[in-house]
């Protein structure tokens, strides 16, 4: 089994929790509106119609403002939840690498990198950055960008993101052990209903893989690092505080 360091992305966990709290707040408002409706029914039957206009206005506000917010925060929460689960599946798979490999999870604040790197893998076959995606559908390359079901992703340019992560890790290693390594960026789709159709060669300098075959991909690459080189790289990561288990 591989050596594992770090833990699940704090950003995903905190964002999922934050959006759930927002949903809870709006759900509480909805409950209060429901109670107000009960009061309205009582007031209406009592003949005090002057309150009816106020509650109609409240209903309109709920329909226009609160309900869309619930849907929005629910969708955002689900996205973070799916990302959280996707990272968990990738972590479970990466455990299967041999003991010669070291896996670092949730690398952040490294060489002015914005955001975090889901995983960095160090072993005899090289150093890899792994960007995990939870998206479903058919994944293709249209010549300049990745697409899902023939449409480009709207969140961000995943290929550019993956290459930026690899450059950051390369710069980090270079400053620590004065050695210029070729870092291999990977994008891994872990959903059981994601179908990666980009071929076996890299696209724009990035390998795009499915969770079913990315462990085999890492292990089957040509051996390029010696044990002493691996130890130097691991020492650099540990010195930066990334070896917490």
CATH fold descriptor of the largest domain: Trna Endonuclease, Chain: A, domain 1
* DSSP, total strands: 10
Question: In total, how many domains does the architecture comprise?
Answer: 2
Helix count from the secondary structure assignment: 5
Tell me the name of the CATH class of the largest domain.
Alpha Beta
Task: Write the CATH architecture name of the largest domain.
Answer: 3-Layer(aba) Sandwich
Instruction: Give the mean pLDDT.
Output: 81
Name the overall outline.
elongated
Strand content: 15-25%
Main-sheet strand order equals 1-2-3-4-8-10
Secondary-structure map:
Elements: E1 3-6, H1 10-45, H2 50-94, E2 102-108, E3 116-123, E4 126-133, E5 137-141, E6 146-148, E7 151-152, H3 158-177, E8 183-189, E9 194-196, E10 207-210, H4 214-220, H5 227-239
Parallel strand pairs: 1-2, 4-8, 5-9, 8-10
Antiparallel strand pairs: 2-3, 3-4, 5-6, 6-7
Helix pairs in contact: 1-2
Protein model, in words:
This protein is α/β, with parallel strands linked by helices and 245 residues long. The chain has 2 domains: 3-7 and 98-239, Trna Endonuclease, Chain: A, domain 1, CATH 3.40.1350; 10-82. Helices cover 49% and strands 21% of the residues. It is built from 5 helices and 10 strands. The strands form 2 sheets. The chain has a 6-stranded mixed sheet. α1 (10-45) runs antiparallel to α2. The longest helix is centred in the N-terminal third of the chain and has 45 residues, at 50-94. It is elongated, with a radius of gyration of 24 Å. The two termini are 14 Å apart.
